[in-house]
Design a protein that fits this description.
2 domains; alpha/beta; single chain; 10 helices; 3-stranded mixed sheet; Rossmann fold; 6-stranded parallel sheet; UDP-galactose 4-epimerase, domain 1; 290 residues; 37% helix
Length: 290
């Protein structure tokens, strides 16, 4: 059984990876107080001591509201340290972002070959851009580039599909900041793809890990209302359409036997999960989210 260091294991993606694959691999999930991956010597010691085979990094510096100036430094430091230890393990998997393509411009059905045509101008996008440059020049670092992922354990306060599900359950008005075309993948599908990457040697070093299906946010809201069986008011806060945010998954599908769940089934599964776990939802906070 492979020893896997799962960095960020308490977050949305990390928690789901552990839940679905815990019987297949031996996960090591240190909290940040036990292992600070910005400290290279500590990271090297941990990997050697625990005989780690694979590193999966789901972590990202997420305290930009407290100290936005340090966001770029922290994310680049984490990436540099993980690159430094990559020679000690079989492979490193991490999760990039569609922001690498620069969200100031339309991103529609974009392929991996278009990476680098535009350079992001914010700290998050630039740090992910830099990480992909490192992955492409590495021997064993792989970027699973995400656009929209949804499922249990995500932040229902700010994540669109979860937020709408929760509002529908509590019969609150449903709000959309602005309609746009998006690509959403259910978390179970993502974890199954992670499993494929663990058990194989990918041909490339970066992949758009998306469903390949475009959907409007307004269509998602309509689907959730249908699932709930309720007629609720819909507030669109800004007219028109925001820039599209979708990608091609041809590279991924040509190489792996990828199964993508139907969006209706995935949303229904998430809705029912929240309905059974209402106690995790703070109504007073929920009603003030937009």
């Amino acid at each position: 059984m492979k020893n896997i260091l799962l960095i960020g294991g308490s977050g949305f993606i990390g928690a789901n990876i552990y839940k679905m694959l815990k019987n297949k691999y031996n996960f090591h999930i240190p909290i940040s107080k036990q292992l600070d991956i910005c400290k290279l010597d500590d990271l090297i010691t941990y990997i050697k001591l625990n005989e780690i085979d694979i590193v999966i990094n789901t972590a990202v510096y997420n305290k930009r509201d407290i100290n936005p100036d340090i966001e770029l430094y922290k994310n680049i430091k984490m990436t540099a340290n993980i690159e430094n230890i990559s020679n000690l393990v079989e492979k490193v998997l991490y999760f990039g972002s569609g922001a690498e393509y620069d969200k100031r411009f339309p991103i529609k059905d974009v392929s991996e070959e278009l990476f680098g045509q535009k350079i992001p101008d914010n700290a998050y996008g630039l740090s992910k851009y830099n990480a992909n440059l490192i992955a492409r020049n590495s021997k064993n670092i792989y970027n699973l580039r995400l656009f929209g992922v949804f499922g249990p354990y995500e932040n229902w306060r700010s994540c669109f599909i979860s937020n709408i599900c929760c509002k529908a359950i509590f019969e609150l008005p449903l709000s959309i900041r602005q309609d746009c075309e998006f690509d959403y993948m259910f978390i179970d599908d993502l974890v199954n793809i992670v499993d494929l990457f663990i058990s194989s040697t990918p041909k490339h070093h970066d992949y758009n890990v998306v469903s390949g299906n475009t959907i409007r946010l307004t269509d998602i809201v309509e689907k959730i209302m249908k699932i709930s069986g309720k007629e609720l008011p819909i507030n669109i806060l800004k007219n028109g359409h925001n820039l599209p945010y979708t990608a091609s998954n041809i590279r991924l599908k040509n190489e792996f036997d990828v199964k993508i769940s139907l969006i209706d089934d995935s949303i229904a599964k998430l809705y029912n999960w929240y309905d059974l776990n209402r106690k995790i939802i703070d109504y007073d906070i929920l009603k003030n989210t937009k």
